[in-house]
Amino acid sequence: MKKTGKIILAVLGIALIALAVKGMLEIPGQKTVLENAVYLDEAMVLPENEGKLVIIHGVPEMINPVYDEELGLTIDAIKAYRYKETYKQTGFTDEEKKWEWVTGEHTSLTGRAKIGEFELDAEILIAFPAESDYTDFDAEEVKDYVLTYKSVATGEVVVLPDGGYYADSKVVREGDSYFNWLGAYAVADRLEGKTAYRYKFYDFDKHGEHTVAGIQQGRLLVKDETVGALVREGVLTKDKVLSSNRNSILGGTVCFLCIGIVLIAVALRKPKFQREKKGAA
Fold first, then answer.
1. If you compute the radius of gyration of the chain from its CA atoms, what whole number of angstroms results?
2. How far apart are CA 140 and CA 142, in angstroms?
């Protein structure tokens, strides 16, 4: 491995270890904040809780659905992810050429929702899961786009705003027939550079109540800067919220710490030929 590559790995390793240490140091502060939080059996806005961290639970209700302003599409959910794919060449050798859909950016999108009397701030809504494939597009909104299956087996649907179609990846190798090469280049000529979008959404049918913590600001529940956007599946007691938050932080810090140590170890590892030369001496 080149020296530059080792330096990059070492820097990444140190950064991950620093994040792990930071997470460990934040546990006592977050514990204190959550211990002082007001736990509400009913999600009611009470004047005496203004400006305080409150913990509520309930089933979220949609006020307004997600609207993707970039594509002008409504997603009938309180939270969604938009994934952007681009058809491009990924194999460039003389022996092999390959074109495929490559997933690039993904964007969190939120609508408006409430639990009980509290409307949830967008930064809290972002913490809700969005794992189901969205297919129920408004026909009028997609009339100028191509709507097709990414996978017939899974039912996953993609939106192609620039037209075209969703082709499988194309690979041609040295020795393949002229027709294989011709077919691959024909697809690439038509699709290269085109984009496809797919969505995952929060499915009410797969979720029930959630426990949510936030600062009461009028009728709005906003993210606490110390605790962050705390959203947990199910109805949790205050003690369960504390242990869940602690375990979540510990899981992340241990993961960062292990990866950081591995990256630094790889960066410091001597090349094989140097080890063999030292052994021979």
1. 25
2. 6
